[in-house]
């Protein structure tokens, strides 16, 4: 295939979705000249230093920077400092000062005076002590709100730059189609189109308009991680799409390969995926960084190399520019050059990309700006407000028999369950708090930033008017229900984490919980997972409610009082035996620092829920991938479909319009519908546009999302939404070509993938359209009137 020409995306309805400039090249001639002049004077050891990462802990003695350690460990400089803030427990000012101190050593004592890149996780905000903790991505995916995501990552950028961090190992854009995957919580869900839209927003906010003031985003994990990725058609059309969108539309210049395997070869050393797909077909011209320890795994785990030296050479040959997180295989590259496994020219290519990234980030300027002077506030009111709004828009109302919002007649609430008054159910993996607890076996400070529990949220909202009685009733799980990947993380870490989650808590009193439940007007049961039951390296035995929680809920239901089940966690948890008897079900996911206030406001009606599922909610714990695009089995319907979510108001769709035919060209055609709020409350509806092939022999999947928009409507108000569709949104990968097939397509507008409100067919006239230069990424343009 020819190299793909980058042509950008269609306009969308808001300023955020305005036409972006074409993705700029990774470097300019001036950058190239600056870097080449620097490299001309570099020794091979100095080059190797620029393509490796290390940890700050290697330079510390009793928590203080040691110049002797610096001279010993990084005499030639270093490329990256890895997870520099989650490895410390420092105030913002102390963290900034430590970064400045290290950069001062590098720019005054090393021969080349090249600063390092300090990078960190940013999936739920800047992962550092005291910074705003946003909801986990699986919940944010249910907001269907790209504009809000861009605001969130803009705040993340500001916090990171304030301490001198310039690079993030986020966003995670893997599609996840099974809740059994332990990293499911980090994904935006199962759909490529939705993930692409949200991923572009994430990168736009993080990078800003200029790399010199922004934070470089790393798109991960390339590609097909956590899924079955050997079907070429699905890999190209779906798993590659979010990465491609982030690269082409948002201008992401860093990519991280996954730990996975493609065609029997680990992706970290896989030229088919990293050279052919990523660079030659997608047209990526930036930097590729390894996942932590991924290159040594080629030898140690996958046995695809005879030794570490060869594994490193294979990675450079495949196109991995930086080895993270420790210098393990790349320091052996000089020996690999001697043995003819690699040439110094190939090393130079990686070094040049590493240095160009530093130029782009402003680190090689004459007087680079490292951090922000003065006192630093990582969780100001404006950022907390964003965390609150994101939580409100992430929480999905799955069921409601009318008990919600809670009426003024409710005077006694029994608040029970392991997540009712604790903070562990608020935190997704790769938050600062979860990382300190898992990796360091350390307690985090629930007041820095302040983590608002559900109990506190309810007391904040109705504590003066309603008697809220609390009792845990049961633990999260009786034993170590999750198991750990011992090959990568060791044996004892999970046991220590389990102890941390219950330290300081009284033993649950089941009998007291049942007693207060019987005396209540309504029972709020806060169940689900915590940081020990979900996350990288942690795998549960199943995906139902952990431990004795289901049995506890059964006893609550037996009281005859209405039960509002509030689910916390990083995955859909199978509740098929409980669903029919609960009065209401709220899926809160891991809702972040303002989770308690957000859930409370939804329960009492201060906020009208608007979130829609970004995943299919399974009806059993069977280990299988589920994807709405394949259609649901009529005899095995999911508990809730993709795109589903309830509101406290109702919406009516009317006046659907679509042309009967259009030319199969780049000219867009219109699909429109009116939406009316027919209830008594103001609300926001997420209008979803799907397409289905009408040809029985079509190779396109039965139904695919092709557009969406959030429409805010006052009670009784009607608005019209119009989607402008490019025929190229219907492109398929067939016989190693991108083809738009002529013929008839049925477009559907609905409130979910199964709740279709209106539909119509359009015939695309002309010959099949072959895209000789590869796929462009088109988003539907929408207009609201």
TrEMBL record:
Domain of life the protein comes from: Bacteria
Alphabetized Gene3D superfamilies for the sequence: Glycoside hydrolase family 3 C-terminal domain (3.40.50.1700), Glycoside hydrolase, family 3, N-terminal domain (3.20.20.300), Immunoglobulins (2.60.40.10)
Matching Pfam families: Fn3-like (PF14310), Glyco_hydro_3 (PF00933), Glyco_hydro_3_C (PF01915)
Keywords: Carbohydrate metabolism, Glycosidase, Hydrolase, Signal
One annotated GO molecular function: beta-glucosidase activity
Leader sequence segment: 1-18
EC annotation from Swiss-Prot or TrEMBL: 3.2.1.21
SUPFAM superfamilies: (Trans)glycosidases, Beta-D-glucan exohydrolase, C-terminal domain
Domain Fibronectin type III-like: 685-753
Family as reported in the entry's similarity comment: Belongs to the glycosyl hydrolase 3 family.
Protein name, UniProt field: Beta-glucosidase
